[in-house]
Structure formats: C-alpha cells, structure tokens
Amino acid sequence: MQAQPHGAPVYLGFAAPYDTDDLYRLSSCFLPLGKVGGKPSWLNPVAIPKSEQLTCKSCSKPLCFLLQVYATAETDSAHSFHRTLFLFVCRDPACSKANDGSNIAAFRCCVPRVNAWYGADGPLDADLVMEDELPAPPTGAPALCRTCGCFASKKCAKCGAAWYCSREHQAFDWKLGHRSSCGQAVERNEEERKNPENIWLFEELGMEMDRETLPASLFEDLSDDEDDEEREGEKEKRRMEEYVKMVKAKKLDEGAAAAMAEEDIEVEEKKDICFERFNRVMQLQPEQILRYQRGGRPLVPSDRAPEIGQVAACSLCGAPRQFELQLTPHLLSLMGVDSIRESIDWAAVYVYTCSANCEIPESGYAPEAVVKHDFVE
Ligand SMILES: [Zn+2]
Ligand SMILES: [Zn+2]
Ligand SMILES: [Zn+2]
Ligand SMILES: [Zn+2]
C-alpha cells in the first residue's frame, strides 16, 4: 500500500461508556471496534502473547491491558481479514519516564477470513446473543489470568481451578477474595458486577471512531511551510556549531559573545509551533483519546520533542514500520492516572506497525513499536 501521509483521513477514537450489564458486548465473539480497559478481548484467543512478552522492561511486573482497536484496510492481504492492535502499559508510575515508550507494549494480530473463531459472514450479533449464551472458550485456548485476562500458566494449588499469569496476580486475587471463594462451586455470579472487575484493571469502556475534519483556517496564522522550518532548523544548527567551535578556539571576543547570547534568547522565545498546532487540534475535539492514520504522520506535541527518527524495522519480516495511531493526553484522565505527580503520563504515544502488514505465525500476535513524547520543561 502506498502511504498518503497528507491525504489520508485521520480517524478519531472516542470512549463510549457501557452499562455494566452490557459490557459483555465487548467480548471477542462480537469483534468490538475497540475498547479501553477491562481485560483484553483477544482477536485470536489461542495464540495469545506469553507472559514474558507482557512484562514491563523496567520493573519486570505484568503489564496491564490499556486498549485495543480493530483496524483493517481494503488493501490488506488475505491473512489479515480481521486485524486488531492491542496496547498494554506498566501500572507503576516509576516506569513512566520522559520521552521513553518502554513502559508500553503494542501487538498486532491478523486473522484470515476462514478461521476457527469467527464466521465468514462476520461476528455474532450482540443483540441476538445473551450474556449467558456466550460461546465457551475455543479448543486450544490457554487458561486466562483471573486478575488481568492474559496468558496464565500457574494455577491455585488448593482448588486447581483459578489460573494466573504470575505469582503477583495470584497474591492479588487471593487478597481480593479468592481466599474465601477458593474451592467453592459458585463464584462471583451472584455478586454485583463491577467496572472495573478488580482494581488492577482500568475501567472498561467501548470505543467509537469518527473521521476528523479540520477547518482550513486552523493553522492559517502558523507557518505551514515545513521546508522553511527545516531550513530554519538547519541554519540554527549550523550557527550553534560555529558558536561551539569559536568557544573551543577561544576566538570569541566579548562583543560577539553578547550578540550570540542575544540571538539565543530570540531562539528561546520563538513560538513552539508544534505545541500550538497540537493544542488547536486537541481543542477541536477535546474528548479524542486516539488518532488513527495508518501510514500517516504523528501529531507531535512540541518543537522540543526529540526527533522520532527511524523506528526499528518489523522483527518478523524486516519491513520498515510506519505510523499507525497515537494516544492523546485525554485518555489519561479516563484511566484515572492524571494526577500531577507520580502517575503514568504522556503528551503522545505513537504506535508504529509493520508497513507490509506481514503474516504472523499461527495468526498470532506480532510485537510492534511504541514511541512516547512528554511535555518536558
Ligand atoms: Zn514497570
Ligand atoms: Zn495476570
Ligand atoms: Zn483456589
Ligand atoms: Zn512485518
């Protein structure tokens, strides 16, 4: 597929709250368009990521499901008739470091039209299937962690019926109530349903998508000529290089130094055009949680944000990765993590995916790349 960075439409994702009794409509069998929080609704319920793939690179604790979005394109090949992206984040604020996306993991799952889980005519209709009629876990599906809904390989030694991804989640569930319900035939069913199901998870919400329209006048007063900006940037860089050279050679007399300093101040006070643009776009649709434009361009939140540069190529096929979506700061408030200090934070999280949208072994999950930008003083 030829990417058309400027022409391709941007789709915005918005959170859509559900009544607790209706949350079952976000189950895998209905192929939800997207959702935030709760447990993942795995597209391929069998070849799901292993626990090692879902641990934080900084603290080694399990990552927490953040959101998923169903995103196909007409040009996708047959192996990718269904396609969903999944994002996970470390819940520990200490792992959220400025301009570092290592606390977030992204996966791409592609499933062909003919598969063991979804009919060729499409998914089940949530209006026709009651919650207690949901299909049983498919053949070959691994047990899922009771706490987080991810791959589970450890079970409660007492009852043998409760499964977990990690000791940590087993201990969590034990304290949360398994201590008293362990071994009892009936669990939870009669309890009042909660959202989130447990405090490890983020609140579960549906997602709706809408095409973005920006008024033509939105950036009228901002320099829109990127070549110009680039040239300005180049000039500034050369000037700084010269300055450093002069200082090193001690050739700089006081007058020249003063002139340079003045120029530096000018640069300092130059309008942050990216920041201005970012804010205007966000203010038009303040509730947007996600911006989607496969093969498009990220909306960078500040001129001071570090260069995204070359993102690592696809680890499966070696094709370059391309921009696919970005998360906005508004999502943080829905996750309940937007306190000023000590919380997960970002100005933008970008997900870059394989530009070849390559076939994944077992129609499973391919890790994709995450880049994060923060507002840094
Ligand atoms: Zn962590
Ligand atoms: Zn778990
Ligand atoms: Zn047990
Ligand atoms: Zn690939």
Identify the strand order in the major beta sheet.
1-8-2-3-4-5-12-11-10-9
**Main structural class:** alpha+beta
Could you tell me the number of beta strands?
12
Q: What is the C-alpha radius of gyration, as a whole number of Å?
A: 24 Å
Q: Mean pLDDT score, rounded?
A: 89
Q: Which band does the percent of strand residues land in?
A: 15-25%
Domain MYND-type: 145-182
InterPro entries: PDCD2_C, Znf_MYND
Region (Disordered): 217-238
GO molecular function, one term: zinc ion binding
Can you characterise this structure?
The longest helix has 23 residues, at 226-248. Helices cover 19% and strands 19% of the residues. Mean pLDDT is 89; it is low at 1-5. It is of the alpha+beta class. The protein has five helices and twelve strands. The chain has a ten-stranded antiparallel beta barrel. A two-stranded antiparallel sheet has the order 6-7. Bound molecules: zinc ion (4 copies). One zinc ion binds at residues 56, 58-59, 61, 90, 92, 95, 103.
Write the layout of secondary structure elements.
Elements: E1 11-16, E2 34-36, E3 64-70, E4 82-89, E5 104-111, E6 154-155, E7 163-164, H1 167-181, E8 205-211, H2 226-248, H3 254-269, H4 273-284, E9 288-292, E10 321-327, H5 330-335, E11 348-354, E12 365-373
The structure holds zinc ion (4 copies).
The site of one zinc ion (ZN) has 8 residues, from loops.
Task: Summarize it.
By secondary structure, this protein is an alpha+beta fold. It contains five helices and twelve strands.
Offer a few descriptive terms.
377 residues; 2 domains; ten-stranded antiparallel beta barrel; 5 helices; disordered N terminus; binds zinc ion; PDCD2_C; zinc-finger; MYND-type domain-containing protein
